[in-house]
User: What shape does this take?
Amino acid sequence: MPRPPRRRACLQLLASALYAAAPGTLHAQPAPTVAAASDLKFALEEVAGRFERESGHRLRLVFGSSGNFYAQILQGAPFHLYMSADEDFVFRLADAGRTVDRGRLYAHGRIGILVPHGSPLRADGELHDLAAALKDGRLRKFAIANPEHAPYGQRAEEALRHAGLWDAIRPRLVLGENVSQAAQFATSGSAQGGVVALSLARAPSVAALGRFELIPEAWHRPLRQRMVLLPGAPAAVRDFYDYLSTPAAQAIMQRYGFAMPRD
Assistant: This one.
């Protein structure tokens, strides 16, 4: 049954208004995608926001565990820049012929213990109180990223092993899919604390939820964080890759606790 002329005219007017309000949407290209380790969540959003304002380019940031992104890139995921929390994943992709080159270091990360307000635990970087809590029954759940694919989870395991706590704490672990989820567990009541990235603990929204103390660097392998362009990366992503080495970008990264590369 045909629409009444007045209704048809209204629909045509509405369609014209929507098209005029969003010119070019039918032909707009999707923003290029940056696959970034989840410890970068707050720092990279700020860096990318500044880059977009200065350059006019748009980027799509996707955060997750470096190991999962590695597996997805091997399977052909349509990413354009990969920012890993562990350079070994970049080297393995390069050896498999999946990258433009072997990339460059963009930061060194740190881990520490995050304890929410009201927790029976103390934020003790050398984990003495965590050891005591395991013995006296104060500790029920403790969060880290999954060591099977998350570099920050691997370093958390190494630190807990160094402290002699790994075997005792394993039954109480809550594993995040990535370090950002581990931080959520550590501050939301799902756990009484956790080992997370300094860069997340520095974010005001996380810092307001608890107390944080660095774990000694010597207790785990370094977190050498490397990025690499993937084949077909458009100009916007290549520009962002270079922008990450500028003083403006590095100043933001340092504010979130990252050390800048020295080699």
Notes: The longest helix spans residues 5-21. The CA atoms of residues 3 and 9 lie 10 Å apart. The beta strands are 33-37, 60-64, 81-84, 104-109, 111-116, 142-145, 173-176, 194-197, 210-214, 223-229. The chain has two domains: 30-108+223-255, 109-219.
